[in-house]
Specification:
Elements (H helix, E strand, L loop, with lengths): L3 H6 L3 H12 L3 H7 L26 H22 L9 E5 L5 H10 L2 E6 L2 H13 L6 E5 L12 E7 L7 H11 E14 L8 H10 L6 H10 L2 E8 L1 H12 L8 H10 L2 E10 L1
Parallel strand pairs: 1-2, 1-4, 2-3, 4-5
Antiparallel strand pairs: 5-7, 6-7
């Protein structure tokens, strides 16, 4: 990260630390799930679990569990895509904080349009571009080593932008201002995110554990709506996915891929201090 390009993309010591974390990350819970079908997610899952995956021959239990966790994560990405509005093949979409590229590839499969992904992790960008090339869609799906707060893309270029569990790494006011510049009038912004519950008070111990684990800063729920309103993003749909994501975490906690953070997520969700929200907003 000592390159001139890296210096232009990474604007603080904190951003350097986040980039270093994701450049070095090779967590099996991300990589093994992606091996199921070549779609590598960097987010969590939703929906009812098929608990029968834990039954049957022990020698194939891990394979069944991995496939089920991957199915739940893909269901989350599909739900996000369903809130992007009327997207045409001629449109352009932006995946802000694109990880290893799974959501961008799903968007292209669904809409047939051009998709740009941006990440401050050079290793993730290289991995995602290799996946797009392997699928023969690198002419339409491209990943860039850029900062989502200042991508350099032209104003009004995008019909839709999304953040899938990446807003906790940036200041929301700066992020939504950047997105409002890039979205055309009437364009759609969608995020799925964990946020701490203002009604609970300050972040709970479990939320603080999650922050420390991922080197992030989980925002309060209210800040999302405050900063959207300040940046011409008007919510059209808010979906509380908290109860829908708990089964995913319960299954993950029983899997060989558990990382040790599962108990904190479950405590925070079940205790009410943490919420998992989908917010869709129109740029006015």
């Amino acid at each position: 990260m000592g390159s001139t390009q890296g210096a232009a993309v990474l604007n603080s010591l904190y951003q350097h630390s986040v980039a270093d974390y994701w450049n070095a990350e090779k967590n099996p819970v991300n990589l093994r799930l992606g091996e199921v079908d070549g779609i590598y997610h960097h987010h969590y899952g939703i929906g009812a679990v098929d608990w029968t995956v834990l039954d049957g021959p022990s020698e194939t239990r891990e394979e069944r569990t991995i496939a089920e966790l991957h199915r739940l994560e893909t269901a989350q990405a599909d739900l996000l895509m369903s809130h992007l509005g009327a997207v045409q093949p001629s449109d352009r979409l932006l995946d802000a904080g694109s990880g290893r590229g799974g959501s961008s590839l799903i968007a292209h499969q669904r809409f047939g349009c051009r998709v740009d992904g941006v990440s401050i992790s050079e290793s993730q960008v290289a991995f995602a571009n290799a996946q797009a090339e392997r699928r023969g869609v690198n002419g339409k799906v491209r990943f860039h080593f850029k900062n989502m707060l200042d991508t350099g893309f032209e104003p009004g270029a995008y019909q839709a932008i999304w953040n899938n569990e990446s807003t906790m790494y940036v200041e929301l006011g700066l992020l939504f201002a950047a997105h409002a510049r890039l979205l055309r009038r009437g364009g759609r912004y969608v995020c799925i995110t964990g946020c701490y519950n203002d009604a609970y008070g300050l972040p709970s111990r479990a939320v603080s554990e999650i922050n420390a684990h991922y080197i992030c800063d989980i925002h309060p729920r209210s800040t999302y709506f405050k900063e959207m309103a300040a940046n011409r993003l008007v919510p059209v749909s808010v979906v509380d996915l908290t109860s829908a994501t708990i089964p995913y975490w319960e299954l993950r906690a029983k899997s060989t891929l558990a990382t040790g953070i599962e108990a904190a997520f479950l405590d925070a969700y079940k205790g009410g201090s943490f919420q998992y929200l989908l917010i869709a907003a129109d740029r006015v």
